[in-house]
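hi! just following up on the protien thing from before. the input was this:
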Amino acid sequence: MTYHIPVLAKESINGLNVKGNGIYVDATYGGGGHSRLILEKLQEGKILAFDQDNDAIKNLVKDTRLIFVNENFRYLKNFAKLYGFVPSDGILADLGISSWQIDTAERGFSTRFDGPLDMRMNKNGNRTAAWVVNNYEYDELTEIFKLYGELRNARKIADEIVFHRKNNPIETTDTLKVVLTKLAPRGKESKFFAQIFQALRIEVNNELDVLKDFLKQCTDVLKVGGRLVVISYHSLEDRLVKNYMRSGNFKGEAEKDFFGNVISPIKPVGKFIVPTQNEQEENPRSRSAKLRIAEKIA
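and the predicted 3d structure came back as:
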């Protein structure tokens, strides 16, 4: 099955600085595109790969050097210890949704196809987007669309949802779009609905808290000199990644010692990287990608 075209493939693998006998973590296995590229550079080395989506199992590469964990990457440290991946030479995380997930209507991630309002990365999870839309209070919905969707008209969006769900539950992606169509800015409908879906997906999967948990564990798992490579796709994710790599915390304010030296276990390597024009044309879903690299220093 064609599951995912790896974004910034060459750049991310170069950023990891892969050694033939090194041990690496692919925190977001998906279709295995990045893991395959790492395996090409390994000899005696190994990969520990994570993915909470059961469908990723169908795309596992048959290689004894790869250990797969069907769990959320927020459990990075526990499983890294269990399988002997502490300390690791590098950790890679591609925070995007896989092409297969987007193109499968019943997953509810896409604004292009009608399907159930699901949006769970882990299909065993209890909370769906439909549950959020039909059960959250007005103020809770407002907060989600304001913070996670970065939508200025969050109150009006919440108001429309609360009004319409009184008569009929909002259960499908198309129904939600119909309910909110009049609030979409003319000519910018696609962006508007992408922000709506992004906000719900982040809430359903608790994505930002999970990302924080993951990043804080990376410095415990990496060896000194080990690399952390993260590809993000929207400003909320990227801000967390940038701040953590810059200062070792999520505020982005570096703590300093008596002599003015920054106190952080990690430092950025180079500037962030975005896809080339050619990659964006070949893979439109890469357009918003931003790659950052950091190295553990203490």
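The chain has a mean pLDDT of 93.
Residues 110-205 form a domain with the DNA polymerase; domain 1 fold (CATH 1.10.150.170).
cheers
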